[in-house]
Design a protein that fits this description.
Elements (H helix, E strand, L loop, with lengths): L15 H10 L6 H7 L7 H6 L28 E5 L2 E4 L27 H12 L6 E4 L9 H12 L6 E6 L1 H4 L6 H7 L6 E7 L8 H12 L4 E6 L8 H13 L3 E6 L14 H11 L10 E6 L4 E4 L4 H4 L12
Parallel strand pairs: 2-3, 3-4, 4-5, 5-6, 6-7, 7-8
Antiparallel strand pairs: 1-2, 8-9
Helix pairs in contact: 5-7
């Protein structure tokens, strides 16, 4: 793995002692690319809000937990989370090129938890091969695209040899964190399997992330024929307006990325300053209906605590037509 990063000699939102305390509690790291984008930006900049540490991360509310979506409860062995019958997570690496301040896995990613060793990876792949119902394997972590192309090819070829697995989906934020790492060799490794269909899910939260270098990295993936979807998180102070979400979703579609999920923020420790009420999120999605093509609208979802899985948050349109935005009578 490549590890070029900006060390956490910490700048952010708060006093120096507060930010040092945040860095002792949670992983803090950015990349030279992100640092260049954030240079001179104020505390309300959407990139600064996402990547610079904030003294408010030291506040843990009573409802926040270390494992907010219940990965541990559904993990039969290291590197595997098996929550649904037809798909599972494979987490080969536990580090990222940069750390988002709202991360729901912030308690388990970072230095000291680098990656599965060869024996652990072999055991995880053997577990997958023994699951007859698993149709899709989702690579996540950490950021699995930090693996070398050789290691990505090894995983791709191993999964291609499992006949029931047809889809492999790589979840990444590397095109945003450090787009130069989306190399031709990496793309070739993702598409190395003759049978397996690769997908890439790109995490992006604001239209400002789509600078020319990021657009070029995404294009390298799309031009290779890899279907692209997005995951975004609804974040207070980053994208919690109709205008910001509309610009984000249009930027995604413009770059051949289908908006897939808009996540309600999870109950991760030290992230309460990012969260907003579900009803506010539902109202935002309702305001986007009709002003953004259906092609550009993701599903607004909540990943329930305790490993219970994702549920859509609506809004439930017939119930909401009382505001005069819909017909008086439903006909079918």
């Amino acid at each position: 793995m490549m590890t070029d990063t900006v060390p956490p000699a910490v700048s952010g939102i708060g006093t120096a002692p507060e930010l040092e305390a945040v860095a002792r509690r949670y992983a803090v790291k950015t990349t030279p690319f992100l640092e260049a984008l954030m240079a001179g930006a104020g505390p309300d900049d959407p990139l600064v809000r996402q990547f610079r540490p904030d003294a408010r991360e030291l506040v843990t509310t009573p409802d926040e937990v270390a494992d907010p979506i219940g990965d541990d409860a559904k993990s039969p062995l290291p590197g595997i989370v098996h929550r649904y019958p037809d798909r599972l997570l494979l987490k080969p690496v536990h580090v990222c090129a940069a750390y988002c301040r709202f991360c729901f896995r912030r308690e388990v990613v970072g230095p000291g938890s680098e990656a599965l060793n060869d024996a652990q990876l072999d055991a995880a792949l053997a577990y997958i091969a023994a699951q007859p119902k698993v149709w899709e394997v989702i690579l996540t972590g950490g950021d699995p695209l930090l693996l070398s192309p050789r290691r990505i090819r090894r995983i791709t070829e191993a999964l291609d040899a499992v006949p029931q697995v047809e889809i492999v989906r790589w979840h990444t934020r590397l095109p945003v964190h450090d787009p130069a790492r989306i190399t031709c060799d990496l793309v070739t490794a993702l598409t190395a399997a003759p049978r397996l269909v690769p997908w890439v899910a790109i995490h992006a939260n604001h239209a400002d992330e789509f600078v020319p270098e990021v657009v070029a990295a995404v294009r390298r993936l799309a031009d290779a024929g890899i279907p692209l979807v997005s995951q975004s998180v609804l974040l207070r102070g980053v994208n919690d307006t109709p205008e910001a979400l509309e610009a984000l979703f249009r930027a995604l579609v413009r770059n051949r990325i289908k908006p897939y999920y808009l996540h309600h923020p999870d109950l991760a420790s030290g992230t309460s300053h990012f969260r907003l009420p579900v009803e506010e999120g539902r109202a935002l999605m309702k305001r986007l209906r009709g002003r953004v093509s259906g092609l550009g609208l993701p599903t607004y979802i909540l990943d329930r605590p305790g490993g219970l899985g994702k549920v859509p948050l609506g809004p439930a349109w017939p119930e909401d037509w009382s505001d005069g935005t819909g017909p008086d009578v439903l006909t079918y």
